[in-house]
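Good morning C.,

I know you're traveling, so I'll keep this short. The sequence:
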Amino acid sequence: MKISRRKRLEMTKNVRLEMTKNVRLEMTKNVRLEMTKKIRSMVIKIGTSVLTREGRFDRTIIGNLSKEVAVFLKTGARVCIVTSGAIGAGMTLLKLKSRPSSMQGLQAAAAVGQRYLMQCYEEAFARYGFSTAQVLLTWDDMVSPKRYLNAKNTLKQIQDWGRVPIINENDTVATDEIRFGDNDRLSSLLAILIQADALVILSNTNGLYRGGDHGRRIPIVEKMGTDIFAHAREKKNDFTVGGMDSKLKAIRTSVTSGIPVFLADGRQKNILSSLFQGEDTGTLFLPQLKKHSAKKNWLTHLKRHL
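The tokens, ready to paste straight into the viewer:
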């Protein structure tokens, strides 16, 4: 059968596009593998949107992620988990249909939910031979140089004992004047504090998309310019606090301190394994400079925050 010239040109174009796509995917995988092969210490932030389903706290996701984290722990890697969800868990236990509007209501819900949240993590990690340690931080713990160093040394000791630090803002006592605002910011500053090799932010979106969720996913971001923030689209609900803009600000804090960041869908099956095997999922934000001393970077970003 004779093929027309127009058809041949179209076929050639499709072949070239497919080859270009394959080359791009291979390059993306190589960059990701190069970035992950030396990671021995990481901070994983698990958002409320990951830990809730249809307005209710979902403990099964903690079990799934704990199983994956245990694989890294068994290789000798160190992992700190920054978890949201205390208020969301409290709302579920109290059968509240909407987020409390008052400070005392939020703090009371956090007090109810925090104990259950830790129980879920402890039981999940125990299945794989690990135990956890609860660490609750406030802004005051980071502002004071003495308390800053104490927090760093305490986290190191916890990990030396083979425990998994489960970290959250102390919502029960924090007020508007002395709070981080959201755990995205907390996780980025914590990554600097412990000089982590990488930060993983797990949310309800599989990375950053051009023009929002209906655009094309951006696999790698090389530089956090103002144009990147133009892609932010908010997807908050009664259970969540930080949106995409908050995440991008936290990511900028990390990458400008030499720490790469992965932003991915925390409900995707085997998401952590996929990220660290170089698979094309989520968005990798490349570090913009080499890591300096943690203290120097901390002071830089503390001044910006204030």
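Safe travels,
E.
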